[in-house]
Amino acid sequence: MIFNSCGNKKTENTKENGIIKTAFLENIETVKAVLSNQTQELTLSGKVEFDPNKVVYYNPLISGVIERTYFSLGDRVNKGQTMLHIRSSELSSLQSELTIARQELQSAESMHKDKLISDRELVEARSTYEKLQADLSLYGKNMGDGIFAIKSPMAGFVVDKNASSGSTVSEGGDPLFTVADLSTVWIVANVYAGDLQSVKEGIPVEITTLAYPGEIFRGKIDALSQVFDSEERVLKVRIVMPNKDLKFKPEMSVVVKLKNETQQKFLSIPSDALIFDDDRYFVVVETAPGKFEIKEVQLQGHYQGTSFIRSSLSENDKVVIKNQLLIYSELKGK
Fold first, then answer.
1. DSSP labels for 118-184?
2. Domain span at residue 296?
3. Residue 37 resides in a domain
4. Chain segment 279-315, per-residue pLDDT in tens
5. Do residue 210 and residue 99 come from a single domain?
């Protein structure tokens, strides 16, 4: 169907055009379809993890019973802070050996002073004592009576706890606690095979989380795994994020958005120009002043209010972006 020109002139086709009147036609707006590089936006699901290079797991070095714990999950701890006391019969034996070795060293020093033993014998006595002292220091601070105080090896936050008063521990067992420095964290996101072409190292990303609605954190992809996760069947991307304000918590769910500009050019138009009807997309094109036609289009993608078209349109086609739905309905005879 043809509409007369939309200038300031009056037209006589109001009746022919049904609901569309001259005043309406005067307010039609169009934009030209232009060639541009397609910008793709991809949304990935992910979560916060602590930096494995800034974490310490404390595994028990000897069997015993936990007398008392001095920390809770999530606590901030300092380096050297007492975390728990362990009572161990094995440590008690070592303490007895250390006491005997100290007495023997004192005796050896006295005898060496009186020239009753050789230098070598004094060195052996001192070596035996120092070795036992070093061995005991591995287990923590000697509190006496077979009890040792286990200290935090670094400053940070307790991100895992598997210790409670009265529980038994075994040498080489599971970590009793884990301390992590959260000043820097990893954002680990999932990438499916079909999205790999859009994901590259160095691409900037925007990170959002339900915990801070409306707040956007910006980073970049630092690494892309080359091996698929055997369970989730995805590749993992890593984003290293500073966490000065400690807003990111381990295991927190996040949404990662990234954009990538392709080298292939497509015609682009405002997404508002699209008309979705019968599971297909259409646009209204002004072919001449006051003349319009409907074109079905095939979409390549969307990005921030722009749609990329891979067929049906030509460069510089004038696409209607205001009141196009009414024109579409009239042309369809609705």
1. -HHHHHHHHHHHHHHHHHHHTT-EEEETTEEEEEPSSSEEEEEE---TT-EE-TT-S-SEEEE-TTE
2. 22-32+274-332
3. no
4. 889 999 988 887 889 999 988 777 778 888 877 888 8
5. no
